[in-house]
Structure formats: C-alpha cells, structure tokens
UniProtKB/TrEMBL annotation:
It comes from Streptacidiphilus alkalitolerans. Gene3D superfamilies: Tetratricopeptide repeat domain, Winged helix-like DNA-binding domain superfamily/Winged helix DNA-binding domain. CDD domains: LuxR_C_like (cd06170). Keywords: ATP-binding, Nucleotide-binding. The keyword Nucleotidyltransferase does not apply. Residues 240-271 are annotated as: Disordered. This is AAA family ATPase.
Length: 970
C-alpha cells in the first residue's frame, strides 16, 4: 500500500532544540494570533534584530503541537543558484511523497530538486507549479496543518521566488500557513497576497539586552557596570547582534589589530570593534575627505545641526551631506537637526577617527556650541591632560547639569573634573570624586557611587579629612536602598568623624532615624529625627532640618498622634518657606500628601503628588522618583482611579528596570493597583514579591504594608481558603505593627480586614478581640483624621454581627459605614461596604435591599473599571438569583433597550414588532441578544432585571455624592 503523508511527519518534525527569544513575549503573542487568522505572516527588521530566532521559536512551537513544518533559509550566495531555496525547503520530504505525484509534475519537481533529469518538452514551469501544489496538498491531507518558514525572502533565487509567489497566493485554500522574514529596506519579490500582515521586530529593551549579555557570557556579565549596559543598549539601538559585538566579554568584540582611541569621553559609549566598524562604514569608504570630516564633527556633537556645521566653516552642509544621506548614513530633519541612520554608525565614526582628528573636532565644538555644559565637556575632551582651571570649570558645569535635571551628564563631567585635577591637589580631587558619587546616586548608578565612596575611605595616600570621610559614608547610606539593617557601623563611624560638625551629625542622625523606622522601632526613629532637627538648627542646615521634621511628623502620625504630627509638619513647612530660593523638598511634599491621605483629603493629596511629579521629576533621583510614584499609586487607589493606578505601577517597574535597581516598592505598588483594577492572582503574586523583598532588606515598615496588601488581595477572593490565607498574612502584620507601636489609619484598616477574614471563617470571638484592639488605637485621633479607617471598622463590625446571626445590628453597622463613606471620596471603600451589606441582607433573605446595595456596588465598579470588586458584586448577585445573573441595562444598545422595556412590560413578540415597525424575526433575534447580555433565560428573568433597575441607586443618588463628583472631575 502506498504510504500516507502522515508517514513523513517524523522526519519533518525533526529540528534543533526549542529556543526562547528574550524580551519578545508580546511580539510572539501577536505573531501566533496572526498565524491563526491569516495564511501569510511577514516579519521584517534590520540585520541582526533577531528575525531568524523568532521564526525558529514559532516553528519549534508548531512542531511541538504536531504541525508539519518545512523551512528554508537562503543566504547571499544562494540567490544565484536556481531553485536553491526550493531544494532547501523540500529537503525533508521523502521520496514516497514525490512518488504519489502524476508522472509529468513528478519529473519536473525531481529535476528542480536535482533528483532526476530535466524534462525536454518545455512545459516544466507549469508542471513544477502543479507538482509543488499537489505535494503540499498531500501533506495537508485530512486537515493536517502545514507551516512553511521562509527565513530570508530577500535572498531567494528568482525561480524559487516565482514558484513560492504562486504557492503563497493559494495558501488559504491549500490549508497552509506561511511565515517569512525579510530585511528592512530590501526589494523583495512580490510574494505576499492581499491580507498579509507585516510585523516589524522591535528592539530589545534595556533588561532584554542585559539578559542577552548574561546568556551569552554567563554570570560574569552581571558584573558589567549599569552605565555600560545602558550605553550598549543605546548605541546598539536594541539590536541583539550589535549588543553582543559591543559587550567587552564577547569573543568577537575585539580583534588583535584593534586600538582604543584616546580622548574618548564616557558618553561616547562602548568601543566598536574594527571588523564591525569596517562593515558599518563600508559605504562611506569612497566619500571625499571633507565629507568624512564633516561626518566626524556631527558624530562628535551631542546635538548636531546644519547651523552648527555651518558655523564650523562649511558653507552648505546640506549639500556636503547629500552623499552620506543617499547612502543611509545620515538624514536631516525639518528643523535642521542631523540624525544618523543608526547609533552604531555614529559610534563607528568616532572609533574610526585618529586621536588627532577627535581632538580637533572637540576643539572646534568647544568654540561653537551654545550650551555652557556641552562647551565644558568638549573643552575637557579637547584637553586630555591635567589642568586645575579646567577641572574647576568642569566641576561647575557638573553642578549646573544636575540643577538642570541631567544627572547622567553631571556624573560624566564630574568624572572628567576628577581626571583633570592635578595629582597634588588631593583635597580638590576627593571633593570632586564625592561630587561624582552624589551625581551617580541621583542617576541611579549606585554601583559607580559606591565605588567612588569606597575609594575615598580606602585610599591610603593623601587620606581624606574627616568631613570627606563622612560624606563618603553618607553616599554609601544613600545607595543602601531599603536595606539599612547592616549600616549601623557606617553611621557610628560617621558620627565619630563628625564630632564638632553639627551639620554632618544632623545628616547622620537623620539616617539613624530612617534606619530605626525601617528596622521597626518608631520610638527610636522619633528620638533620632528630633535630635537631627536640633543639630540641623544649630548648623543652620535648613534643608536637613526640614527633612528631619518631616520624618518626625510621619513617625508621630504612625504612632497615632495626629495632633503632634500636624504641629511638627507645620514647623517643617515654616522651615521650608524660609529656605533661600524656592522650597523644593520633595520628601516634605510627599509627607504632606500622605498626611492628607490619612485625613481622607484624597483630592488634595492627588493634586499635591501630581504637582510634585510635574515640577521636580527632572531633578529627582531614581529612588526619590520611585517614592513619589508609589505615593501616587496609593492616592489613585484610594480615589478610585483604577486604570491610572495600574499605569503608574507600570511606571514604577520601568523606572527600576531602566536603573537596574532592585526594590520591593514597585512590587508593593503593583499589588495595590492589581487589587483595584487587575486580577487578584497578579495582586497576590506582586504582594508576595514585596513581602519577600522587604524581608530580605530587613525593612519592617514596608513588610507590614506588603503583608497588608497581600492580606487584602487574599480576602477579596471571597472564599474560605482566601480568608484563611488572609488571616495568616494579616496576623503577622498585626504582630509586627504592635511591636512598632503603630496606630495610624493604615494599621486600623489592616485590623479591620483581619476581623473581616476571621468573621468569614466563623471565628467571631477572635474577630471581636481584634476590633476592640483597633478601637483602642483610635483613642488619640481627631477628626477628620482616619474617617475611612473608622468606616472600615464599622464594616468589619457589621460582618461580625452578621456572622453571629444578628442581622439588625449588622445592617445598622453596615448602613453607618456606607453613610460615612458617602461623604468621603473613597469609592472602593464604599463598594466593599455595599458588597458586605448586600451579602448580609441576602443571607437574611432581604432580597430587595440586598439587590439594591449590590447593584449600586456593581454600577460604581463599572464606572471605575474596578474589575476584582466587580466580580465580587456579580458573584453576590448570582447568589441572589441563582442561574440568572442580573446585569445592568448599561450594556444594551438603544434598540435592544426598547425591546427589553416592551417585553418586560408584558408585550408579546408580535406586539413589540408592531410597535417598533420591525419583523417578528427581528424582535426574536434582538430578544435573544438581550437575554444573553443580561444573563437571563426567560421573560420572567427579564422582568426581574427591569425590577432591579429601579434599585440602581448609583444612577441617581450615588452620582450626586462627594465621592462620585470627585470621580467625574478627575
């Protein structure tokens, strides 16, 4: 018997082991979806971007799913070989498949594949086309899927290309899927039929480049400085091939004849190997010397323009650059800015120049550029020797760059200032090294900052004076992040060196306060912060005094004394107002916003945090920016800005990824945002990561907050298992909070959640104990402080009463909680109370009241896109009317609404058709859609839905509360 096509599958499935491209999950998801819906997918991108890796991954996945896969990958030399690509593509197909073809097509195909003599009747082209179509049809017999991978369409030989065009235009009826790769800018054959989707491969992100280098070189790649990783990412443009070539550990990144040009600045980026330079600049080899000199000048300038090149003495720079522009080396924007085709070409030009050419270019630019910071940089690079006056100029330029919000540039200039400082000027050199360390901290380059500070502390020759050693220790404290547990020795040694210097002692005491707070001792934190404020006042260091008073106010609020906190915060604000120049204490502004949040002044807190981001983000360091963004997430969640909170949490993650800094704060922000608008699974995962990170850092304060976020996400699942997990998390937070003597609204909310979880488990006695403890913490509170937390307590008290079967008492407590929250801009808190109220009334079989509360909750959730709470509300509605989930009529179109209204009023389908001047069939179809959308199955269910609409309180009453007015104006 003739073998069936399936017999060839084992051979066709053979291939290299599966690979997983880095940083490409989103792209692969889109490609998979395209291949499910379209016959042909076209993947494009520049050389080295990873097209082949991506199609290999798609092919591997297809094979793993039992899809027969044929692949060809022609190269430059293959384009001149007739049917070379076809031979490659069909190589795995066994002779048994060819044997089933009719004689004439079989002979034509065997000839093309060099398996037989060429036909002599002149009909070989048509016969070959028929043969290939027949062969592929056989491989897809009985619906078996077949994928053709054409990797490198731009290198197809012409006969293969013509044949594959014929196949591609018949892919859908043949049951084929085709995925091709093609280099950007090439002129490929007209392979693609109408409807083909083109996907351009995006560049790798910074984290993707880091993973690539680590995968290429192993763990040693992790030792690359963050600044070098950033430069490799920037210069390579995210191209994997270029990134590997630029990495210093990569075997191909150096060649024996490579020389490293002198006079290069740190901002010039990583060195481009000579072999790669030659390839990148091959098209420029025949350009006149004047043109190459102009290209070098443009490459040396940070922001080259035609005006700048004209000022350098070139009468018509656009005309001179016309040749390079035709070659794709440069382009000119409408505003006259000169852009290189790829950052690698700029880097190659810089590294291909001689030292003399580079110094000359910097000398010219030092005279021409208008920006004094850039002018100082070019002057330094044009003067590669030590010079005291130049070092002083560079030091001032670095400070100007930092003030302008350019910490990367400030760091580079400060390093140049160190290098240009004469060897005998030890004190000046150390001061400038510490300046560089401070700028590195601002830019998130903690590795560089630590290296500079440690060198100051370890240098035996020309030892730093005590004040400089204290500054070095302060840098090390700033780079410790949340992990301050092991820094006691740094602080004590600094205090010993700072004897007699009240200003430095104040800064060290401030760090001691932060360390105590993160370590779990609010009493010690308050004591150290107060001492820091006193010392700062003695030293007339108003900035440190403002920070110390702000921290003290925060600690006092955490300890449940809002009156003391308000007084201390007023002192801090007064001190900030007396500062010379505009008050710009970002930490103090954040503390003001969070104090407003404790008082449920959410609109004011939002305005303050937003203003802080807008005014000072450019001048803020990475960790300072992260703290502001995390505060914004907290405010957005409380305000009900659910989608915005998710977006801000993503910004937190990107900020840390770009800076390559580990911190649990971003995970904490993600947990809050996911609980509000994402999924509870992701919320629990993020909160767990925040718990683990805070534990590793020894940061008890954020550990408590992370445990609270985890407990809330577990509790909102609404299941006994979730409640049991929530009790475990929240009980741990309770114990840690008690040890820290916390009595703020966040602490009370966590205790309310713990009591709610215990009530869900039937542990009413223990829940009552937790509530009594929470009430005792509020003894020192003064209105309007903590109103939302008190409402959360009332909600938990109502649920405990409901668990005891005391429905009247439960309804009173839940009603009081809802009434309190209607006067506050805390929509998600109101939703939680309404769900709790509706659930309690449902269990008491008070269906009308339950339906009203739950429908209002669902309406608010839809308005705010609060997905997790919406699911809870709908689950309760499902329990209220089993089998007939009642949704609001917001989901119906106008015509559907008219039909629903008439039917729920008792009209028959024929009566509805007559009233609306449509056919009965149209009414039946519309009614089916209405049933599906509202989750009902009958006219009775539809009538119930209409009845529920009469109880949608949020439509009329809730929208007119301060809560929803705040949402509308957000």
């Amino acid at each position: 018997m003739t073998p069936t096509p399936v017999r060839t599958t084992a051979r066709l499935l053979a291939g290299p082991p599966p690979i997983r491209p880095l940083d490409r999950d989103g792209f692969l998801d889109t490609a998979r979806a395209a291949l499910r819906s379209r016959p042909v997918l076209r993947i494009t991108g520049p050389a080295g971007i990873g097209k082949s890796t991506l199609v290999q991954a798609l092919a591997d996945e297809a094979r793993a799913q039992g899809v027969t896969t044929l692949r060809c990958a022609p190269g430059p030399d293959d384009s001149l070989l007739p049917y070379g690509a076809l031979v490659d593509l069909l190589a795995p197909v066994g002779p048994e498949s060819l044997a089933r073809l009719p004689a004439e097509p079989r002979a034509a195909l065997r000839a093309a594949l060099l398996r037989g003599p060429e036909p002599t009747d002149g009909r070989d082209r048509l016969a070959l086309r028929l043969a290939v179509v027949e062969l592929l049809s056989g491989l897809t017999a009985d619906g078996a899927p077949l994928l053709l991978v054409l990797d490198g369409v731009h290198w197809l030989d012409r006969p293969s290309a013509e044949l594959l065009v014929y196949v591609a235009h018949r892919a859908d009826p043949l049951g084929l899927r085709i995925v091709s790769t093609e280099r950007s800018g090439e002129d490929p054959p007209p392979l693609y039929p109408p409807g083909t989707l083109e996907l351009a491969v995006p560049p790798l992100s910074l984290s993707g480049v880091e993973q690539l280098l680590a995968q290429d070189a192993g763990p040693g790649a992790a030792d690359l400085p963050v600044r070098l990783l950033r430069q490799i990412h920037e210069v390579s443009g995210g191209n994997p091939s270029y990134a590997l070539a630029l990495a210093p550990h990569h075997p191909g990144s150096r060649h024996p004849d490579d020389r490293h040009p002198e006079g290069r600045g740190a901002a010039d980026g990583p060195y481009v190997p000579s072999a790669l330079r030659r390839r990148l600049l091959a098209s420029a080899a025949g350009l006149p010397p004047q043109t190459r000199a102009l290209l070098l000048l443009a490459a040396t300038a940070a922001r080259p323009t035609l005006d700048l090149l004209r000022a350098a003495g070139v009468a018509d720079p656009a005309a001179v650059l016309a040749g390079p522009e035709r070659l794709g080396l440069v382009g000119t924007d409408a505003d006259g800015a000169v852009r290189f085709g790829h950052p690698m070409q700029r880097a190659a030009l810089l590294d291909d120049a001689t030292t003399r050419e580079r110094l000359a270019a910097h000398t010219v630019l030092a005279e021409l550029v208008p920006d004094p910071v850039e002018r100082a940089r070019h002057l330094a690079l044009a003067t590669p020797y030590q010079d005291a006056a130049l070092a002083e100029l560079l030091s001032g330029a670095a400070a100007s760059a930092r003030t302008a919000g350019r910490p990367d540039t400030a760091y580079e200039l400060a390093v140049l200032a160190v290098e240009r400082t004469p060897a005998g000027h030890h004190a000046d050199r150390t001061d400038r090294l510490l300046d560089a360390a401070g700028f590195a901290v601002d830019a998130g380059m903690h590795e560089e900052a630590r290296r500079a500070a440690e060198s100051v502390l370890a240098t035996p020759a020309g030892p730093a004076d005590p004040d400089q050693r204290v500054r070095a220790r302060l840098v090390l404290l700033e780079t410790a992040g949340q992990a301050l547990g092991d820094t006691r020795g740094l602080i004590e040694a600094g205090l010993a060196d700072a004897i007699g210097n009240a200003g430095l002692q104040a800064r060290l005491r401030l760090w001691a306060a932060v360390r105590a707070l993160l370590g779990g001792s609010t009493a010690t934190a308050a004591e150290q912060a107060a001492r820091a404020a006193e010392l700062a006042a003695l030293a007339d260091d108003r900035s440190t005094r403002v920070s110390a008073l702000g921290l003290l106010a925060t600690v006092q609020a955490m300890r449940g004394t809002p009156g003391d906190a308000e007084h201390t915060l007023a002192l801090a604000l007064s001190a900030a107002d007396s500062l010379a120049g505009p008050a710009d204490d970002r930490s103090l502004m954040r503390r003001q916003a969070l104090a407003e949040l404790d008082a449920d002044q959410v609109v004011e807190a939002h305005a303050r945090i937003t203003a802080l981001l807008e005014r000072s983000q450019a001048r803020a360091g990475v960790e300072d920016s992260l703290a502001t963004l995390v505060a914004l997430v907290r405010v957005q969640v409380r305000r009900g800005e659910c989608a915005q909170a998710l977006a801000t949490a993503e910004r937190c993650g990107r900020l840390l990824t770009d800076a390559d800094l580990p911190s649990p704060l971003a995970a904490y922000a993600a947990a809050l945002a996911e609980t509000a608008a994402g999924t509870l699974d992701r919320a629990r995962a993020a909160a767990g990561a925040a718990v683990d990170g805070s534990t590793a850092d020894g940061d008890r304060l954020f550990l408590i907050r992370a445990l609270g976020a985890l407990g809330t996400a577990q509790l909102l699942a609404g299941s006994p298992d979730g409640a049991a997990a929530a009790v475990e998390s929240l009980q741990r937070a309770r114990e840690l909070g008690a040890a820290m003597e916390l009595a703020d609204p966040d602490t009370v909310r966590r205790l309310a959640d713990l009591a709610e979880a215990l009530a869900l488990l039937g542990e009413t006695a223990e829940a009552a104990e937790v509530l009594a403890e929470a009430r005792s913490l509020t003894a020192g509170w003064t209105p309007p402080w903590g109103g939302g937390a008190l409402a959360a307590l009332e909600r938990a008290e109502g649920l405990v009463q409901a668990a005891l079967g005391r429905i009247g008492a439960a309804a009173d407590a839940l009603s009081a909680s809802a009434e309190r929250l209607r006067g506050l801009p805390l929509p998600l808190e109101l939703v939680r109370t309404l769900i709790a109220w509706g659930g309690a009334e449902r269990r008491a079989r008070h269906r009308v009241v339950a339906r009203a509360a739950l429908t209002e909750a669902a309406g608010i959730c839809r308005l705010l896109a609060a997905a997790p709470l919406l699911r809870r509300a709908e689950e309760e509605l499902d329990r209220l009317s089993p089998g007939e989930r009642v949704r609001t009529a917001m989901e119906l179109t106008a015509s559907e609404q008219r039909v629903a209204d008439l039917v729920s009023a008792g009209a028959t389908n024929r009566e509805v058709a007559a009233a609306l001047f449509v056919s009965v069939k149209t009414v039946e179809g519309t009614l089916s859609r209405v049933y599906r959308k509202l989750g009902v199955r009958s006219r009775t269910g539809l009538a119930r839905a209409a009845d529920i609409r009469g109880h949608e309180l949020f439509t009329d009453r809730a929208r007119d509360t301060p809560l929803m007015r705040g949402v509308r104006t957000s």
